[in-house]
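Async update (no meeting this week)

Hi team, since we skipped the sync, here's where things stand on the single-chain job. The sequence we agreed to prioritize is pasted below, unchanged from the tracker. I ran it this morning and attached the output directly underneath so nobody has to dig for it. Comments welcome in thread, and please keep replies under the output.
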Amino acid sequence: MNFGVLVFNQVEELDFVGPWEMLTRWSKLPEGPESCLIVAQTLAPIICANGLSINPHVSFPNSPTLDYLLIPGGQGTRQEVNNPNLVAFVATQAQNCKAVLSVCTGSFLLHAAGLLSGKKATTHWGSLERLRALGDVTVVEDRYVQDGNVWTSAGVSAGIDLMLAFIASEAGEETAGKVQFGAEYYPSSTKYGGFEKQAQAPAYLQNM
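Output:
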């Protein structure tokens, strides 16, 4: 089982590092994926949105057929939606994937690849209206959304919740619990500054 995580210049770090932490912990369990790969168009170092530099494991031409593909977001998505090589890679790999997942504005790359039309989906709160404006996506203001084999999440840290829910769906709640416990991921309910009450806050946050 091959699980690929797509990266590109100006990708948001936590969009992929958070899910990667959960994913690789899962991979150490007997029921986890056999191979976890960071995939990019080339093997050149990727400079992320906040300055982190990472080295991909495989490039598009050398990538194996993936069983699962996760697409993070970040400022780089605004350029990459117009990158025919990246969009074609996502569309081609998705034909064989059991599931495709996005975090934050990675949803726009899913849409560019033809994978969100007619689907329910979400994205970062700051891009919800932009996602609605596409016209063929039912936008749900939730932490993460599953529609068939397509999973999307809200912004940045929400990718961790997405991945844990996905692991529970694929391998059961006990496995997801082992991953969660190992990562000690039990978010505090504390909210700072009252920003969850702002008009722009997504519905799920306003209702908490």
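Quick observations from my side:
The chain has one domain: 2-206.
The first strand starts at residue 2 and ends at 6.
Reply here if anything looks off.
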